[in-house]
UniProtKB/TrEMBL annotation:
Signal peptide bounds: none
SUPFAM superfamilies according to UniProt: Winged helix' DNA-binding domain
Protein name: Transcriptional regulator
Keywords: DNA-binding, Transcription, Transcription regulation
CDD domains assigned: HTH_ARSR
Record organism: Paenibacillus baekrokdamisoli
InterPro entries reported for this sequence: ArsR-like_HTH, HTH_ArsR_DNA-bd_dom, HTH_MetalResp_TranReg, WH-like_DNA-bd_sf, WH_DNA-bd_sf
């Protein structure tokens, strides 16, 4: 029986350090799973599971070349994530500016 397709959130997908490393490997060119798995101290099956999670989050795409499946980075979800972070970063910057003012005023007292 086939495993049901679960849509993974980009945050969930990139939360794992192995998956972040996989994405880094795929930045410049596509790779088959055997080449990707050679970079990790885990089984090819474990790497395939990570690739399925990344694919479900839309972060990698598969392409069949003969018998081989190649994976490539799909950066759009990361760009969406960056836009989301940019929107909320203004709140962090405001808090840091307020903290800086507080610290500077506290030193003058």
């Amino acid at each position: 029986m086939a495993e049901p397709l679960v849509k993974h959130d980009v945050f969930q997908a990139i939360a794992d350090p192995t998956r972040r490393q996989v994405l880094k490997l795929l930045v410049d060119h596509e790779m088959p799973v055997n080449v990707i798995s050679s970079h990790f101290p885990m089984s090819r099956t474990a790497v395939s599971k990570h690739l399925r999670i990344l694919a479900a989050a839309g972060l990698v795409k598969e392409r069949k070349v003969g018998r081989e499946t190649r994976y490539r980075l799909e950066p759009e979800p990361l760009q969406d994530l960056q836009r989301w972070l940019d929107f909320y970063s203004r709140f962090w910057e405001n808090k840091l500016t307020a903290l800086q003012r507080y610290v500077e005023l506290g030193e003058e007292s």
